Amino acid sequence: MASRRDFLSQKAPENYVAGLGRGATGFTTRSDLGPARDGPSTEQIQEALAKRAAQLGAAPPTAYGAVDKKKPEQDEEDDERFQDPENEVGLFAYGQYDQADDEADRIYQAVDEKIERRRKRPREAREKEELEEYNRKNPKISEEFAALKRNLATVSDEDWANLPEPGDLTGKNRRSKQNLRQRFYPVPDTVLAGARDSTEFQTSVQDDGGQASADNKDGTMTNFADIGAARDKVLKARLDRAAQMDAGTGSASTIDPKGYLTSLAQTELTSLAADVGDINRVRVLLESVCKTNPKHAPGWIAIARLEELAGKIVSARKVIAQGCEQCPKSEDVWLENIRLNDNHNAKIIAANAIKHNDRSTRLWIEAMKLETDTRAKKRVLRQALDHIPQSVLIWKEAVNLEEDPEDAKLLLAKATEIIPLSVELWLALARLESPENAQAVLNKARKAVPTSYEVWIAAARLQEQIGNANKVNIMNRAIKALVKEGAMLKREEWIAEAEKCEEEGAVLTCGAIIRETLGWSLDEDDDRKEIFKDDAKASIARGRYETARAIYAYALRIFPTSKSLWFAAADLERNYGTKEALWQVLEKAVEACPQSEVLWLQLAREKWAAGEVDDARRVLGKAFNQNPNNEEIWLAAVKLEADAKQVDQARELLATARQEAPTERVWYKSAAYERQLGNTDVALDLVLQGLTSAVVDKKETRFPRSAKLWMMKGQIYEDKGMMPQAREAYSQGTRACPKSVPLWLLAARLEEKAGVTIKARSVLDRARLQNPKNPELWVESVRVELQAKPPNIQQAKILMSKALQECPKSGLLWTENIWKLQPRTQRKPLSLEAIKNVDNDPSLFVTVARIFWSERKLDKAMNWFEKAIVLDSDLGDTWAWYLKFLMQHGTDEKREDVISKCVTSEPKHGEVWQRVRKDPKNAYLSTKEVLLEVMNQLEAKEVIS
Amino acid sequence: MGSVVIPHLVTGWHVDQAILSEDERLVVIRFGRDWDPDCMRMDEVLYKIADRVKNFAVIYVCDLDQVPDFKQMYELYDPVTLMFFFRNKHMMCDFGTGNNNKLNWVLEDKQELIDIIETIYKGAKKGRGLVVSPKDYSTRYRY
What we know:
The structure holds two protein chains of two kinds.
Chain A: H1 42-56, H2 72-77, H3 99-137, H4 141-144, H5 146-151, H6 157-161, H7 174-181, H8 189-198, H9 209-217, H10 224-249, H11 257-275, H12 279-292, H13 297-309, H14 313-326, H15 331-340, H16 343-356, H17 361-370, H18 374-387, H19 392-401, H20 405-418, H21 423-432, H22 435-448, H23 453-466, H24 474-485, H25 491-503, H26 507-517, H27 527-541, H28 545-558, H29 563-576, H30 579-592, H31 597-609, H32 613-626, H33 631-643, H34 647-660, H35 664-677, H36 680-691, E1 695-696, E2 699-700, H37 707-720, H38 723-736, H39 741-753, H40 757-770, H41 775-787, H42 793-806, H43 811-820, H44 824-837, H45 842-854, H46 858-871, H47 876-889, H48 892-905, H49 911-918, H50 927-944
Antiparallel strand pairs in A: 1-2
Chain B: H1 2-5, E1 8-9, H2 12-21, E2 26-32, H3 37-50, E3 57-63, E4 80-86, E5 89-94, H4 110-125, E6 130-132
């Protein structure tokens, strides 16, 4: 130890730089005191060395550069940047030097200088020689032309002026110059319009021709709208074609395989015809096909079409004639031949063709079509029928040609004799006959084709037309007969048939079909109810309300006491039927299920909505008879009177209700009604009565544990400005019902309003103790901190983080956090996190939508609003936010749409919504007015926050 | 009086050697001027505690006029500055004054100074570069 401390008595070495020996580093705490330094810098060290050397009276020691002999000018030129990295100088400049080192340096330097001096002269001479040699080998251009330039002195001014311009002898720039010369201009609209009109047929006569021609004459007037319209038309045509192609070959699930193949073949043929580019080559190919396989009809047809495409109609005819010779039994070849020839020749060809194929329906029909006058056509068809009497198609054509119904009837009678199995013909005949005969015809048809349901339906409709539908139950017989024949359709098919009947106006038949067939093939159990409901819903979706009505009627006959079916039937009538029908259904429903108060209430509401207050009262009276002392019905009656502004009657009813059916809700409603009317004292009295405890007949008639009554008590006091009483009411209430969150909230808000933030805090703390994991209480706590004066953001954040730990799935908390506690930039990432934590929460969705809204991403915002509404249409706040959004960025229709949707979905919840709705001032507002009010309140809130 | 007894460091080299020579003890250096009244008060305290802290600290004084080398490096612009080193490492201490690098006021309470030196020594032995002073010397509460 002692030895190490000897340094105190030692002498410091020369040129020592303080701090260097131990690699000391400094610090900067105050920039005004001096620059930041990490120990002694290189400059500092050098400076120190130089100073020390100066003190000693010697040159500053540098490794090998004891005296820096460079001049300053050279210094500038020979900057450090350009220094050769391989040959660094001053590498050892920062070491420690003593006098011995210095001396050595100086000696070396002296030696170097000496040697330099000695070698100087020979080196200079050699360098000069080398330079001259180099110059001789690489002479400068100016020196090369020196002799020629000397001659320029003799050129006169005139000659200078007459020097020719240099031509482009190399051709190097030719292309770029050409590009310069070539210019492009946009095609003028007149040309476009002309091109459009050149292929257009003018079918309409222009009445103001004079003006139009005047317009066209000077060509400057261009109708841009026309051009646009023309382009649209072309596009539309293309789209139509594409759609047709799609429909033809697309992915429809029902494909007739045969038809599909033929359609494919057709498209192949036409596309072949259209796509042939090199006609000559294709012709050679096809000819070789026909030569190798002359009995192959499609080959002949193809070659004929090719010729036709090439415009050589004559050779096409020749070819197809050959084809007919080769394949006389092929209908297609003959048809092609007929098509290619004009009328007169075609007839001859058709005659030929029929000679070869006298049982070909298509050829006969084609032949018939070639004839122009009806008599000739008829003759052809008669002949055809002689040859093929079983062809339905020909019979139909024949019947179609007859103008006289009698003749047609005769023909059809004959036809049905010959082809008794054709239902079509039977139906056609029945349609032509008078109703009485038609019945006979249909009977015959039934005997001939006992498996045809069409005939039965036709019979039923016939009965409906005559007006016998109710007398004769044809469908019943039909079902029996069809079952016997084993030709019963499936249920779904029958429903489809019924819908078809409805579409064609045969409502009774439709009903009959449903009545007879709906229960077919179903087990006798309760599953049927669901099946029926599904059927009805499907029919409603297709717009076949009569069918649906019939289905419900049938279902209700089987399940007359099913409430859900009655609701569904009532819904159908309400949405698509008349008011009277709805009443009828509901009246039947209450008869069937007199215990269902909802049905009674629906009926009463419908009556009341139609303005028939007395009827509604009567309905409610009946409902009382059936369901004595039912709370719902009491309250409905009260509501009816209240809405009708019959204050006394309503009061009376409520009083009776309190006597007869003293439930909590009745008490509450009574007090609320009085409060609405402004009779605060009466309301308070009622509340107090309600809160006293009393038990009559082992049934509670007063409700000291009713949170709602306590709330009302507090609110009434609050409204009156009696704060101590209100506080007392709340504290009693929270003791009586510690689990009622709204009561706690009201208590806290009262304290907050009074400005006693501390008390509000403690109330909320107690509330949270009683109701753990309740997001609303947490949010209120956070808000208390935020609204305290001054706002205690820090505390709010701490509370929020605790809250989120306790209720991580609460959209309400996240919303509050995102909007109130985060800077704008943090909102989006946080909302993403929130959505990850909370899967589906409408209020969170609204928050996200609002974030997008604030970023003006309107589409996305709208999307999120829609999502929120789909998720929970019962939340009024969502509707209000959406409407507010649309007020800024939506169209009128959209707004109307949203308002009407909101009215139909009748939202009941939502923070602001409930506050507005429950306010006694707003008791008589409609949903729409409430919505607007809520929207305004949202706006006000936004301004504050 | 104290400055006479406490060993003086007369050149930068001596300062460096003083710092480098100790392996197990804290090196406490007072930078200032011997004639300065503040320094005199400080030296008096240092002299009195030197013996009591000798097991874990060694104390030197350094005259800034004699050794100006560290003025810039260590920002030695105050009349009196106490700095701490351990095994050639500059020890910092959070006095609450905002300057953790040094003790740049006159601390006349002996026990407090001993506590500070001891705390720094303990921290240094644990390998810390910065320790928190046992007492907050923030001037905030003085006004």
